[in-house]
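Sequence, please.
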């Protein structure tokens, strides 16, 4: 009887010591990495745990939105804000700008030239006539960047040469150049189709 009792006591101690065969503690998935890749005509979103390397999510989405909400120009009665850059499953990148008239006088905002990493992509020339408190949305394709390259590296430098005119007299009020990098976004979201 003493041997049986000692044997059971040793077995209980071993089970307590080794945790009843549960192995290592379950990962809480506190540190995750999200990556994207273009697959066919859609974008694949992959979420993996950095600690245990378990794949937590693998979904397909139609469009990604790199959100900026960055004011590029705010002068002479014109405010120009880079809203976002969207990427669809075809690999097409579109830059979306909001042009707003902030003066009680009518202004014209003209984009004369645009460069991406020094390459002239001036097909992207447009003009917006705006009265006070009116907005215009401008969406333009970034044709020199492939979607696959953009997913891997967003460090493209964009330069836009613009002119602000008084719409009534066509007097030039400002002629400037602005530069910004596409890796300065604030978040990545699934875009509404």
């Amino acid at each position: 009887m003493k041997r049986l009792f000692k044997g059971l006591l040793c077995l209980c101690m071993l089970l307590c010591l080794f945790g009843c065969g549960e192995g290592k503690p379950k990962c809480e998935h506190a540190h995750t990495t999200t990556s994207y890749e273009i697959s066919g005509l859609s974008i694949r979103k992959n979420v993996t745990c950095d600690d245990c390397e378990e794949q937590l999510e693998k979904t397909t989405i139609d469009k990604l939105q790199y959100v900026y909400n960055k004011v590029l120009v705010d002068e002479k009665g014109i405010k120009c804000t880079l809203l976002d850059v969207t990427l669809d499953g075809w690999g097409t990148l579109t830059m979306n700008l909001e042009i707003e008239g902030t003066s009680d006088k009518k202004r014209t905002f003209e984009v004369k030239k645009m460069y991406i990493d020094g390459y002239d992509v001036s097909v992207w020339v447009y003009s917006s006539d705006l009265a006070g408190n009116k907005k215009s949305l401008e969406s333009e394709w970034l044709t020199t960047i492939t979607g696959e390259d953009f997913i891997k590296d967003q460090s493209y430098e964009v330069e836009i040469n613009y002119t602000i005119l008084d719409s009534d007299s066509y007097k030039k009020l400002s002629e400037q150049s602005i530069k910004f990098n596409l890796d300065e976004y604030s978040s990545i979201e699934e875009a509404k189709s």
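The chain has a mean pLDDT of 85.
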